[in-house]
Amino acid sequence: MAPSTTSPSSPTVNSAPSSPIDVKHPHLILRPATIPERHYSWVINSPSWRGILTENAYYLREAHLSYQDLTRNGGIMYWVLVDPAGPCKPACPETPDHILSACETIRKPCLIVRSNGEVEDVISYGIGGVYTSERHRGKGYARTMMQLLGHQLKDLPDPSDPKKAHVRVGFSVLYSDIGKQFYKKVGWQPHQSSHISFPAKLPSSVSASSATGKVKKIAKTDLKALCAVDCTHIRRFVAKTPFKAGIKARCVQLPTVEVMEWHHAREEFLGQYATTKAPTVKGAWAPLTPTAEYPPREGSEGLDSAWAIWTHDFAEKKLVFLRLHVPPVTSANKDAVSAALRALVVAAAEEAQAWGFSEILSWNPDDLTEEAVKSVVGEESYDLVHRENDSIASLMWYHREGGSEEVEPEGIEWLFNEKSGWC
């Protein structure tokens, strides 16, 4: 039997856009990769992205990540830019130089909330793996690919469930490692991209046991309940919180359990490779009140506790917060929230030290989180970094067809823009 060349879960996608786009190479097409093309893309981009992995281990990791709950059934798609007039053997490319550029997209559940109170469940696509092999660089192929991709994603259906066929694509995101200008020129607007960095080694004045006395370590089995409660909280928060002046719409990538498990599949693979052990502590939970329940009850918002879900970066030896759940702060609970955040900082430091890591990161922290870090590690021992070149969160907005909606880039607020959204 001849080998399959396409994924059975891949939706049908037009090879050319339905309306003209001003691209440098109008004769080229962007289409889903065949299985051999997908595998070859991993081979050619591995020198840049495999990090501490061997080429074979990198190949195995990418295959492993493609079969997670988030990515199976068409959740991840692989794309190639090709010249339809050029010679190629997509079924079994012996010399697949016909792949001019390549990338991948991951489908995620999201929300859009408008200033008139409307809440819309949408799909977003996270874009990653943008790569052009050396022999094809400098010819504008990546630019053409991204222009075509941005256009095609807008109408890409969800193939995993026919009942979701009506759910439209609201936006797409990427995290640029080449600064802000390249992707901005092809439609992805840069948004706030900052992080707080603090050391894993705590000052001698900090008593870890007293600070984390009531903190609970988050296990893999706890994630489903925590993520469900967190998503309930986010839905209510984004709908009822007043809009800032000039903001017409908010968007959120929901930190579902499937999203978290994809990140943890990545860390566990690297952990096994680097140390022969996989991390079992997925975060930390801290109560605000004596009656706070762990895990929180289904349907609640987690307003009586704070928690951090993190991932272990074995390549750079850092602990990175994927999501920091902080309940709305009021005059009545501010002290309790601050104490809980300090306890989470200490718990994260303990986990980082257990793995020999030296640094902890949290993306786009609020003022209270920064204050908590400062009170634990000291004013001179942490950095608030505004990134200009790497992991630049960038977003392309898709207007609704047939509607009167006109939202300019500056009128969009991207909330809960944390590491969990990265791909």
From TrEMBL:
<dbReference type="InterPro" id="IPR053013">
    <property type="entry name" value="LAT"/>
</dbReference>
<protein>
    <recommendedName>
        <fullName>LYC1 C-terminal domain-containing protein</fullName>
    </recommendedName>
</protein>
<feature type="domain" description="LYC1 C-terminal">
    <location>
        <begin position="201"/>
        <end position="423"/>
    </location>
</feature>
<dbReference type="InterPro" id="IPR016181">
    <property type="entry name" value="Acyl_CoA_acyltransferase"/>
</dbReference>
<dbReference type="InterPro" id="IPR055100">
    <property type="entry name" value="GNAT_LYC1-like"/>
</dbReference>
<dbReference type="Pfam" id="PF22998">
    <property type="entry name" value="GNAT_LYC1-like"/>
</dbReference>
<feature type="region of interest" description="Disordered">
    <location>
        <begin position="1"/>
        <end position="20"/>
    </location>
</feature>
